[in-house]
Amino acid sequence: MPRIELSRLEDFATTILHHAGMAEENASTVAKVMCAADRIGLGSHGVARLSTYLERVRAGVMEIDPEVVVTSETASVATVDAANGFGQVAATLAMNLAMDKARRTGIAAVSVKNSNHFGIAGHYARTAAENRLIGIVMTNASPALPPFNAKDKLLGTNPVAIGVPSLNQPLAVLDMSSTLVARGKIRRHLEEGRTTLPRGWANDAQGRPTTDPHEALKGSLAPIGGPKGAGLALMIDLLTGVLSGTTVTGDVGNLLDASRTAKTSHLMIALDPDKFIGGTAFGELVDTVLATISSMEPADGGRVYYPGLVEHDRSLDAAENGADITNEGLDRLNREASIYGLSPLV
Question: What CATH number should be reported for the domain holding residue 278?
Answer without folding.
Answer: 3.30.1370.60
